[in-house]
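Encode chain A's predicted structure.
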Amino acid sequence: MRKEAEERRNEILDAADELFGQKGFDGTSTNDILDKVGIARGTLYYHFKSKEDIMDALIDRYSARLLGNAQAIAVDKSIPVVERIIKAVRSMNLSSGSSQEIMVHIHKPQNALMHQKIQKVIINGVTPILAEIIREGIDQGLFSTKYPYECMEMIVTYANTVFDDEVIELTNEERALKIQAFIFNVERLLGAESGSMINVMEMFGGKNGVKND
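Encoded structure for chain A:
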């Protein structure tokens, strides 16, 4: 029974995930989800109280998946340390399909608490993953800091706030300048050689840190 309930719950989430990507959150009704899964309204409400509850569950599922992707990259020692940091961060990008709709949804003013939840997941989940890579870099002589976790916590928190387009609006020029300053200060926080982390700009979408629209 428990397995069947879990399977049904995942079927609902899969259907909602697909519909949100096709029609948007606001454009998808609970009837659309019911028709897609082929279940009665009572069955839907047994698992989820509302459409918003379904979105919240999707965010949890995405968060777990993204952190899992980052962790898998972080432990792959065949990838050089700095490249691994870049790959781990980029693996958590939510930029297309239903995942893009999720980001649009959580950035709405009425969903501020949901946005905070995502930020908390990123800061609390990503920081220890990246800190472990930094510790490996310290062992290799690439970095020199007594505070790998705390450094990454500051870096992740800053990046998650300043480079969130919905929190701070930046022109391409402002964004490029802030990214250059960000990398300059990251190198100093971690005790890295000047210029050694220039490839981190790849995380922001372009050679100069300017997104390609």
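Residues 208-213 have pLDDT under 50 and may be disordered.
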